[in-house]
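Hey Z.,

So I finally got round to the pyridoxal-5'-phosphate thing we talked about over coffee. Here's the setup:
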Amino acid sequence: MSPAFEGSSPPAGTLFCGGCGARVTLDAPAPFRCPRAIAGDDIDHVLEFPPAMTSVPTDGDEQPFVRYRALLQSHQFALARGMSDEGFVELVRELDNAVAGVAGVGLRITPYVKSAPLAAELGLERGEVWVKDETGNPAGSHKLRHLFGIALHLVVAERIGLPTRPGPLAIASCGNAALAAAVVARALDRPLDVYVPESADARVLAELASLGARVVTCAREPDAPPGDPCLRRLRAAAADGAVPFTVQGSENGLAIEGGKTLGWELASQHAAGSGPRLDRIAIQVGGGALASACTRALLEACVSGLLQPLILVHAVQTASVHPLERAWRKLEEGVARRLGSHAASQAGLTPRARMRAAADELAHARTHRSDFMWPWEETPRSIATGILDDETYDWRAVCQAMFNVGGSPVVAPEATLARAEERARALTGIDVDATGAAGLAGLFVLQSEGKLAPDERIALLFTGVRR
Ligand SMILES: Cc1ncc(COP(=O)(O)O)c(C=O)c1O
Ligand SMILES: [Zn+2]
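And the result:
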């Protein structure tokens, strides 16, 4: 938890920058990015909400933003500004109906299914593997959850008469997030600019065009500064007045909250189907918003008593690009230095001493970002195209979650990603793509290292449909 949240109970709709402590409220005209963020200051500016303090409900409406509204800052903020609960629900339904009008389906609680064949494939004789199936969402992935959350803020702000940015919506993405943004932008009847790399899939580009989005291709120029050219263009557009309608927490902290609905759902479905014990979860990580959102939600579910704590979290990246894993190694080196010994000889240390050192190192990282996170040097290539981000923008939140409970990043080789995609489809019948099945690839790696116990209960997210 950021120190800014400790010991105080901020007013509804308050975000804090986890890097510099700046405070922003939802009634600001652009409460998306830290107002103090300036290029090159090496502070890890990412706006975050304080943790939800309300218990995670275990049932209710089939629309996640209705079911979990009491945990949403947009709801608390709307109520604090005079909107009724019914009025908020009505807004969610209007937005959801508009999404369904574009995509054919609205956002609904997604299936969570136990797969005995996957458990057998992973050698879990007495264990369980559960799969959260996000492939049936509007636009075919979990990404719409993040963008629905931002859109809800925009419509709440409009309804209660706050000044909002009139500029176009803008996103940097090559695939699932762009499609989800195009659906929601259409539902909102607002223009959307999509900044895509040269490698973007032609079918996705055609679909974006048919949804009315304006596509801008961003080449990697040899003499340009390192980092994703699409993100650079997005930042420039946002500086010119566009709304960063994008799924990197560093560019729009509001993106994280909608993603948490996935974690809240998973927690209550797991508790209902398997009980409170969940031993491990593997999450595919690109920019890191998904893992940041899910781990925050799982923590809240543990505090609510739905799940037992100590869920090992594994962030799964490809062998082609793994900046989060690289940052993790840097953090571990820093922790070892603080403990006055080398990483190899830490077996005898108390978990408490290690936690303290990890907390200190993560606090140091807030103001020394480039010691841990910088753009990947080579142009990444993999079948898991959705997780090829040059940087893990939400890296600190994900590392924090892994340090809290002893998880770790996993790097999956290309052949393992291909096997996971094939096995996922064959063994579950879910038409998931390689990115969406990358968590399973991470589990195959852990299995080959002898790290899975035969009685474990494991959760996976199948996040995107094959196109
Ligand atoms: C299907 C799918 N799963 C997972 C991810 C990773 O999400 P994040 O970039 O938030 O880490 C993406 C990102 O594009 C995706 O498309
Ligand atoms: Zn900041």
